[in-house]
Amino acid sequence: MAKNGAKIAILDLNPVAAEAAAQQIRDLGATAIGVACNVLQRESLEAAAAQVLAELGPCDLLLNGAGGNHPKGTTGQEFLDVDRLDDPELTSFFDLDPAGVEFVFNLNFLGTLLPTQVFARQMLGRSGCSIVNVSSMSAFCPLTKIPAYSAAKAAVSNFTQWLAVHFSKAGIRVNALAPGFFLTQQNHKIID
Ligand SMILES: NC(=O)c1ccc[n+]([C@@H]2O[C@H](COP(=O)([O-])OP(=O)(O)OC[C@H]3O[C@@H](n4cnc5c(N)ncnc54)[C@H](O)[C@@H]3O)[C@@H](O)[C@H]2O)c1
Fold first, then answer.
1. 123 lies in a domain?
2. Rounded CA gap, 120 and 123, in Å?
3. pLDDT tens digit sequence for 63-117
4. Parent domain of 80
5. Among residues 29, 40, 123, 151, which one has the fewest Cβ atoms lying within 10 Å of its Cβ?
6. What is the CATH number of the domain that holds 177?
7. Which residues does a 6 A CB cutoff place in the pocket of ligand 1?
8. Number of domains in the chain
9. Is 19 within a domain?
10. Residue 104 lies in a domain
11. What is the DSSP string of 52-80?
12. Is residue 146 part of a domain?
């Protein structure tokens, strides 16, 4: 996108990571800024949106990429082993922590809805704007052991379809990507 002339703002909870990614884009000769932002806090999003507007202009394309899983939303085994229900080393389906499940739902679902509420306001009345959410193949074909993540990504896919209709008369296109595995910070230890 940078090579094609887009001015890019990288928003992340971790400002050092956001700035490092922005620097990589600037090294290509393009315009990019790193901005600290928590996608789960409206005030943080409003502040980030104001900064982006002031430094780069209104948002044309929003990519909702924040997301991930949590160990407390994950079962220890692929299949329920009724003989090991009392094994303290294993998290069975019955032990799943509601707080872990809530964390995963909030990060993936609310972390898509809230940035859209804030940044889509800058798209109204302008043409050619679009939103791309990041779902997962696990939304359609759930991987074993990660019920919270799979269901939260199914919510992202469902919300994307709803929003595409809702925004259709406002001229904002809404789509989602549903990747399989790709190597990034959160999974390189598992995949490598
Ligand atoms: N890597 C894969 O194989 C894969 C597959 C399918 C879907 N996905 C999805 O792709 C997206 C990106 O995944 P990734 O593998 O690059 O993960 P990653 O963990 O490397 O990157 C996620 C980024 O989100 C940031 N983040 C976390 N909580 C945040 C918050 N509250 N506010 C702002 N930023 C926050 C993290 O700091 C991190 O930089 C996620 O939605 C993920 O679920 C990844």
1. yes
2. 5
3. 999 999 999 999 999 999 999 999 999 999 999 999 999 999 999 999 999 999 9
4. 61-191
5. 29
6. 3.40.50.720
7. 12-14, 17, 37-40, 65-68, 107, 111, 134, 136, 179, 181-182, 184-187
8. 1
9. no
10. yes
11. HHHHH-S-SEEEE------GGGS-SSSS-
12. yes
